């Protein structure tokens, strides 16, 4: 096959002409991209300032801000591609096909998005609530489009997909504002039950942060005659803010007062019998 320099020059000329014709579209697309990103950034700032001035729920603020941000970026992508010369009809067909493929590939992400919408609508919890979900206990730090972030008691951040949160059990410890504490106390069978109950009830009633009327009064009842102890349940109400401080103080002070009055709090013990070859038996207690 003979090499035709004229034909190659013709190809190069037409290719160069197309590149020159394409340069304005490319420059326009690049400018559209950078200007669009700048506008989106400004809009995001305005949205944050708007929410900062209004007393909206933090849960709603984060979700709507993320939704606006992603919607604007998708629209910008369409504008940039159109600027490059892609026909809108073809673009719609491509986006539709790509959307179907992406939807099938990212079913979990779509489920998380739907879960985020359900959380926003049903409001099982909000930012700042202490919840237990998916085996994690923590304070809700942020609810975004796809996941929810919790800060645990040990200050670790847990990220839980919204899809799982919206389809599983959630315990919200903060929504009602108050909680009932139920402590289990075990005393020996030889100890005076009435005296032990009076000591613990007196201790609870001394605490100013324990809630009374209209809430049920503190009470203590025998709940079980166990193998080595008589188990009692001490119950009282407190606000979420005072709950743990009361819980820890009553545990420590209650043990001290019971011991001062001679009430025995039993602990598990074992009798060990050792046999040697001569038939002698040695016993010890643990």
Number of helices: 7
Shape: elongated
Low-confidence stretches: none
Number of extended strands: 10
Structural domain count: 3
Helix/strand order, N-terminal first:
HHHHEEEEHEEHEEHEE
Sheet with most strands: strand arrangement? 4-3-2-1-5
Please give the CATH class of the largest domain. Answer: Mainly Alpha
What structural class do helix, strand and pairing data support? alpha+beta
Average pLDDT figure: 80
In terms of DSSP E residues, the strand content is 15-25%
Protein name: Small conductance mechanosensitive channel
Transmembrane segments: 22-43, 63-86, 92-122
Keywords: Cell membrane, Membrane, Transmembrane, Transmembrane helix
Domain Mechanosensitive ion channel MscS C-terminal: 186-265
Describe this structure in words.
By secondary structure, the chain is an alpha+beta fold. The chain has three domains: 110 residues, Orthogonal Bundle (Helix Hairpins), CATH 1.10.287.1260; 44 residues, SH3 type barrels (Roll); 84 residues, Alpha-Beta Plaits. It contains seven helices and ten strands. The protein has a five-stranded antiparallel sheet with strand order 4-3-2-1-5. A three-stranded antiparallel sheet has the order 6-8-7. α1 runs antiparallel to α2 and α6 packs across α7. The protein is elongated and about 115 Å long. The relative contact order is 0.08. The mean pLDDT is 80. One of its GO terms (cellular component) is plasma membrane.
């Amino acid at each position: 096959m003979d090499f035709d320099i004229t034909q190659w020059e013709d190809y190069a000329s037409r290719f160069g002409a197309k590149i020159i014709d394409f340069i304005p579209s490319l420059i326009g697309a690049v400018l559209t991209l950078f200007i669009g990103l700048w506008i989106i950034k400004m809009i995001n700032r305005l949205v944050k300032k708007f929410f900062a001035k209004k007393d909206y729920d933090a849960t709603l603020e984060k979700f709507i801000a993320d939704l606006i941000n992603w919607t604007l970026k998708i629209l910008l992508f369409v504008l940039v591609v159109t600027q490059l010369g892609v026909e809108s009809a073809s673009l719609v067909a491509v986006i539709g096909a790509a959307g179907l493929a992406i939807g099938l590939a990212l079913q979990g992400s779509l489920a998380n998005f739907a879960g985020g919408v359900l959380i926003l609508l049903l409001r099982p919890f909000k930012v700042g609530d202490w919840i237990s979900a998916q085996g994690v206990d923590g304070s809700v730090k942020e609810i975004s489009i796809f996941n929810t972030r919790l800060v645990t008691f040990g200050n670790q951040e847990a990220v839980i997909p919204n899809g799982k949160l919206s389809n599983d059990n959630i315990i919200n410890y903060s929504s009602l504002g108050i909680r009932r504490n139920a402590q289990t106390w075990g005393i020996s069978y030889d100890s005076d039950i009435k005296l032990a109950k009076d000591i613990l009830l007196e201790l609870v009633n001394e605490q100013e942060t324990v809630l009374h009327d209209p809430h049920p009064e503190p009470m203590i009842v025998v709940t079980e005659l166990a193998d080595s102890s008589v188990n009692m349940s001490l119950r009282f109400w407190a606000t979420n803010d005072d709950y743990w401080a009361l819980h820890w103080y009553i545990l420590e002070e209650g043990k001290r007062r019971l011991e001062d009055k001679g009430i025995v709090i039993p602990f598990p013990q074992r009798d060990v019998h050792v046999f040697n070859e001569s038939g002698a038996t040695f016993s010890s207690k643990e």
